[in-house]
Structure formats: structure tokens, C-alpha cells
Amino acid sequence: MASTKQIEELREILEVRKIQIESNIEDSKNNIAQLQNMDCKDDFDFAESSSDSFTSEVIAVQQSKELVEINSALKDIKDGKYGICDMCDELIALRRLKAKPFAKFCTTCREIFENKKR
Ligand SMILES: [Zn+2]
Fold first, then answer.
1. Domain ranges in the chain?
2. For 69-117, what is each residue's pLDDT tens digit?
3. Do 51 and 32 contact (CB within 8 A), yes or no?
4. Separation of 92 CA from ligand 1 center, angstroms?
């Protein structure tokens, strides 16, 4: 079981990551807005800027998903439920949490989950 101090360290990692992602999302939003406001003088410019805007949107979507996971992990820390697998209620290994602080499943369940998706 992760000690209070270890959880505190992971919480800090999550908080830092959260701030980072929030500013990333803000950046891509600004980017999209900027690209959409740009005067496109010819087709080439348009294709170029719309693909940039698409990339920014994809990044924003991915980051939003991660933000949701981080927020849910932070909530779990507050509720004292952090580090417990969502599927089997077993404790998630600390080294797994260190690699992915917002992990919701233990290694075993993660594999089952990934296999189901395929
Ligand atoms: Zn599990």
C-alpha cells in the first residue's frame, strides 16, 4: 500500500501535470482560433492552416481526456480511494502509479481491458 507520503508525492505530480495540461489546452484553443481567423489567400494556405487546426484539435481532445482522468485521480486521493483498481478493488502497485499516476486499473485488469478493446 502506498504511504501517505508517497500518495502526497503522486498528488503533486498530478497537480503539476494538471496545470500543464490546462495551459496546453488553452494554447491549442488559441491556436485554433488564430488559424480560423487567418485570412487564407489561396488554397494552399487554407489546406495548411486547416491541417494545423485539426492537429491542435486532436491534441486538445487528448489532453482533455487526460485532464478528466487526472481530476478523477485527485478526487480519489481526497476520498481516500486512490490507488485502488476500478475493476477488482485490488491495490494498484506503486511502481505502476509512479509510471502513470492516474491509472485506474491494476496491471492485470489493464491487460484485460486493453484486450477487450482490440
Ligand atoms: Zn484490477
1. 4-117
2. 999 999 999 999 999 999 999 999 999 999 999 999 999 999 999 998 7
3. no
4. 7
